[in-house]
DNA sequence: AGTATGATGGACT
DNA sequence: GTCCATCATACTA
C-alpha cells in the first residue's frame, strides 16, 4: 500500500524558481486510454515575469499561444517548438503574473512498456542502453514518452479529461540539486545567464 | 500573405 | 564541434 498525495494548486501557487527546484524528485504520472506511466522529475527550468527576456511572456506580451501563462497556477502550458517537439510547462504564481516551469527531464518509473513504445516502437527489453537512458531525457523526449500532446493545452493538473490526466505526486525525496543556465535561450542575452535551471545532482552529470 | 525562427533532438565529422 | 528536419507561431507590412 503506497501512500501518496498529489501536489495541489498551493504547491504551484508560488514563485517559479521555488516550484522548479521543489519539483525535483517529485513524480509526474500520465494516464490516458492506453494506460498509465510515471517518472521522477530530474530537471526543470523556470520562466518568470515581464522582464525575463527568455520567457514567451517577455514585456507582457499576450498571444494565443502564451495566454495561459497569465492564468492560474497548475494550468498546463504546452507548445510546439521546431515544428515537431511538444514542451511541457506548468503555470505558477498568481493570476496576471506570467510564470511557468518547464519540465525538461525525468527518470522512468512505471509504464516502461508504454514509454518504450511511444519513443521507439519497441518493448522495454529491446531497448539499447542509449535508448533506455534517453527515454524521458530532454523536454521533447519527455512529452513523447509520457504521451503529452497539444490537446493538453490549458488543462489543469490532477484533473481527468475524458480518459486523460496529468498528475503530480509528492515525494519525501528531497535530492541535492544544481542550478545552471537555461538551455537554448542564448537570444535572451543577460537573461540567458541566470541560473534558473535546476537538476538533481546525480553524481554523473558534468556540472 | 510572406517570412523568419525556435524553451529540440538526432546524425554525423 | 556542425548540420538540419519541420511547421506553428509571431512578426512585418
Short description:
The protein has helices at 9-12, 16-22, 112-120, 129-133, 139-146; strands at 27-32, 35-48, 76-81, 85-91, 99-110, 160-161, 164-169, 177-180, 197-200. With 207 residues, the protein is an alpha+beta fold.
Question: What attributes does this structure have?
Answer:
29% strand; 5 helices; 3-methyladenine DNA Glycosylase, Chain A; globular; DNA-binding; 207 residues; 16% helix; 9-stranded antiparallel sheet; alpha+beta
Structure description:
The chain is 16% helix and 29% strand. It contains five helices and nine strands, in the order ααβββββαααββββ. Strands 1, 2, 3, 4, 5, 6, 7, 8 and 9 form a nine-stranded antiparallel beta sheet that branches. The longest helix is centred in the middle third of the chain and has 9 residues, at 112-120. The protein is globular and about 50 Å long. The structure holds a DNA duplex (13 and 13 nucleotides).
Give the helix/strand layout.
Layout (H helix, E strand, L loop, with lengths): L8 H4 L3 H7 L4 E6 L2 E14 L27 E6 L3 E7 L7 E12 L1 H9 L8 H5 L5 H8 L13 E2 L2 E6 L7 E4 L16 E4 L7
Antiparallel strand pairs: 1-2, 1-7, 2-5, 2-9, 3-4, 4-5, 6-7, 8-9
Helix pairs in contact: 3-5
The structure holds a DNA duplex (13 and 13 nucleotides).
Number of helices: 5
- Beta-strand segment tally: 9
- Portion in helices: 10-25%
SS class: alpha+beta
Give the CATH H-level superfamily: Methylpurine-DNA glycosylase (MPG)
Report strand %: 25-35%
Q: Alpha-carbon distance between the termini?
A: 37 Å
User: Given this structure, which CATH class is correct?
Assistant: Alpha Beta
Largest sheet, strands/sense/barrel: 9 strands, antiparallel
**SSE series:** HHEEEEEHHHEEEE
User: Architecture in CATH?
Assistant: Roll
- What is the overall shape? globular
CATH topology: 3-methyladenine DNA Glycosylase, Chain A
Give the number of domains: 1
Report low-confidence residues grouped into runs of 5 or more: none
Mean pLDDT: 96
Q: Rg to the nearest angstrom?
A: 16 Å
Amino acid at each position: 500500500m503506497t501512500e501518496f498525495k498529489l501536489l495541489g494548486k498551493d504547491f504551484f501557487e508560488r514563485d517559479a524558481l521555488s516550484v522548479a527546484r521543489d519539483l525535483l524528485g517529485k513524480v509526474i504520472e500520465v494516464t490516458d486510454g492506453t494506460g498509465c506511466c510515471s517518472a521522477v522529475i530530474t530537471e526543470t527550468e523556470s520562466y518568470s515575469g515581464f522582464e525575463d527576456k527568455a520567457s514567451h511572456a517577455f514585456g507582457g506580451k499576450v498571444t494565443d499561444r502564451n495566454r495561459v501563462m497569465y492564468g492560474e497556477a497548475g494550468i498546463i502550458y504546452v507548445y510546439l517548438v521546431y515544428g515537431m517537439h511538444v514542451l511541457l510547462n506548468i503555470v505558477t504564481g498568481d493570476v496576471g503574473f506570467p510564470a511557468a516551469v518547464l519540465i525538461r527531464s525525468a527518470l522512468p518509473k512505471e509504464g516502461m512498456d508504454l514509454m518504450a513504445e511511444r519513443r521507439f516502437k519497441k518493448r522495454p527489453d529491446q531497448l539499447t542502453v542509449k535508448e533506455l537512458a534517453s527515454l524521458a531525457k530532454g523536454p521533447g523526449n519527455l512529452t513523447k514518452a509520457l504521451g503529452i500532446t497539444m490537446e493538453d493545452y490549458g488543462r489543469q493538473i490532477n484533473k481527468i479529461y475524458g480518459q486523460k490526466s496529468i498528475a503530480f505526486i509528492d515525494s519525501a525525496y528531497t535530492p541535492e540539486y544544481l542550478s545552471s543556465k537555461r538551455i537554448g535561450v542564448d537570444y535572451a542575452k543577460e537573461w540567458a545567464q541566470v541560473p534558473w535551471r535546476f537538476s538533481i545532482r546525480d553524481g554523473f552529470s558534468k556540472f
